[in-house]
Amino acid sequence: MRRMIKIKLPKKYNRTLLIVGLIIIFAGLIYFLIYFKNRNVVAVVNGYPITMKDILVEVDSSPSVYKETLEIDPKSVVEQYINQILLFQEAKRYERRLKKDIDDLMKNYYIKILTKEYVDKILTERIKVTDEEIAEYYNTHLDEFLIPEKVRLFEIVLPTQQAAESVRRRLSLGESFEMIAMNESISASKEKAGDLGWIDVRKLEPEIAALVSRMTPGDILANIIKTEAGYHILKLAGKTESRMLTLQEASPQIKEMLVSFKKKGAVDSLMAELKEKGKIKIYPQKVEKLKSTGKEK
Q: What's the rounded Cα separation, in Å, for the pair 208 and 201?
């Protein structure tokens, strides 16, 4: 039978192993915390970390064009935020001097933001819109869901009837409409090769709409149209037929609209209730004094 051999290490060696083990664990914990903290950092400005959340919150509270820019060129959005932080860091040097004005502004800003969040996220949660309400609105407002006929037009605008007729003949021989538009048109649309984009047929002059309705994509209008801007030659590049949105297609739009209507009603109702319950006192003399105070500013 084999005997187990026990090796007894000196107490000093055991303490050393324990300390080394604790250091390794501690270092690993610090590394994990640093990694976890920085994993969403997109930039650092003079030691100030900018996170993905910072950028998304900024974009969410900005005009919609910023959201579009984020999808196309996120780097420019980050660089713009970096500029903001650089100015913020410089402004911090004057924080004590500006603190009173900032506190006054922040008080009103906080009131507005908290109120908006309450209305949008708490009060709105209580608002329900049923499928029956959506269907009823759809059936009683069908004209709102009519997608009109649209046409995509290109134009060449020339200064004289003679020039327009000359170009019309060249087009009939197969010369490029777009090339002539870019090189000879006197309209600003020449920058887009004459492209006027998609136009609601109802917004065209009745006479032009009648002529265009008989054309098919690719056709060039035989008539030369005279306006104050010059003599126009038109080309039809595309056409969409008029149609009615289905209930399914219109439902998200209707629901959003009904929620908005109900939200306003809920706010008005709540305000009436709060005013009735609240203890409100207005000091007319101080109110009048605001007139002169406002002029001084």
A: 9
* Number of Cβ within a 10 Å radius of residue 154: 22
| Dihedral (Cα; 19, 21, 22, 28), 10-degree rounding | 140
Between β-strands 195-200 and 150-158, what pairing exists: parallel, antiparallel or unpaired?
A: antiparallel
Could you count the other beta carbons within 10 Å of the beta carbon of residue 208? 18
pLDDT at 131: 94
Percent pLDDT > 90 in the chain is: 40
Contact by Cβ (8 Å): 55, 77: yes
For the cut 70, the answer to whether the pLDDT of residue 263 exceeds it is yes
Domains for the chain: give ranges and CATH numbers.
149-241 (3.10.50.40)
Place of tokens 């390794």: 24
Please determine, for residue 197, whether its predicted confidence score (pLDDT) is greater than 70. Answer: yes
How does residue 297 score in pLDDT terms, banded at 50, 70 and 90?
low
* Bridge partner residues of 236 (DSSP): 153
Give the residue among 70, 78, 71 at the shortest CA–CA distance from 44: 78
At a CB cut-off of 8 Å and minimum separation 6, what does 243 contact?
146, 147
Q: Compute how many other C-beta atoms are within 10 angstroms of the C-beta atom of residue 237.
A: 19
| pLDDT more than 70, % of the chain | 85
DSSP E strands: which ranges in 100-214? 146-147, 150-158, 195-200
